[in-house]
Amino acid sequence: MMNCQWFQDKLFEYLDGELSASVKSEVESHLEQCATCLKAVQTHHALSARFRHDTDSLLLRSETSWRIEAALQRMEALPFWRRVAWPAAITAALLVAAGLSFRRPIRLGVQSSEATLITAPATISIRFSSCDPTYTFRLEKNRVNDALTCTPRVVQENLSLSLNQNQLPQTQERKTPL
Amino acid sequence: MDQEQLLTALKERNHAAVRDLVAAFGPRLFRSACLLCGSETDAQDLVQETFVQALQSAHRFERRSSIYTWLHAILLNLTRHYHRDRKRLVFDDQLARQDIPSCDDGPNGLDADAASGALIEALARLTAPHREVLVLRFYENMKLGEIAAHLGLATGTVKSRLHYGLAEMQRLLPHELNLFGVGGTKETKT
Fold first, then answer.
1. Tens digits of per-residue pLDDT, A48-71?
2. How many domains is chain B partitioned into structurally?
3. Whole domain around residue B157: which residue ranges?
4. Which residues in chain B (69-108) have CB-CB distances under 8 A to chain A?
5. Are B126 and B185 in a shared domain?
6. How distant is the Cα of A100 from the closest Cα of chain B, in angstroms?
């Protein structure tokens, strides 16, 4: 037997016309007896009309079409090398940095009066720090007081290197202090 | 110009086709954007960016939906980014209430139109997932299955969000809506 809660579960399918004939007829007979559920159906339709009505006065700027065309023209006018320059430069810099870090042993310090050459440690600790800005403002009489605060965020990762010591290039150490 | 011709012309960056596209879908898309973001000014920018992104990716459109649904999917994505970026702006309303400014100043001129609608204000107070399903259901008149496909959700999830969103709208606009509450059907005493 249909009750209001069951009807509530079927409301959207009923409005979408997606119930089977038997369930639809059960729903309609419930609606004949239940003023509250009938009101809910009517309100659903009224809400759709309300959404339309309340947005009728909102108009897209007349120059939008022109602005879109202008934006596209600017993008088309940008030469190919300028579109790829930055990504290419960053990739190249990363490749060079990675290549150098694996080819060269790392000088970590000085012992006594001579430089000591040691190879990279098995684990490298990398620390990233960043700052999340938050803009806060409040109304005070007719003035707006604002503040920009930064929340620091630190991420530390320990990376393990699987370098074979024998594969490191044999470099001639210069006996000079760092 | 039918959908196929329009798409072909857009891929060729035909300026007349761009104007036709904006004229055909711009107003409806803009109103949807106003409901989704709550600000007329920001909605203008969101719609403009939607068209630019659509034209840049016109060659990737797979014709599995209508052009409007495709444009709306781009708009939804941009609106989510918009809300995420705005989270960094924290309005300290508790402090503001301690010393309410004179009403003579009127509402913020930029968003005066958006602020004038009780419906848009109420929508702005919902969470983005609930606001999205309500806009798709009541403004775009989408069926349950269409909303689920558009948002990539299960139908049950959409239904549950609709019920929750409607209950919240009833709470926010008690004198204007008479819908089911969260706990089931209730008589509303006026």
1. 888 888 888 888 888 887 888 788
2. 2
3. 115-190
4. 88-92, 95-96, 99-102, 105
5. yes
6. 38
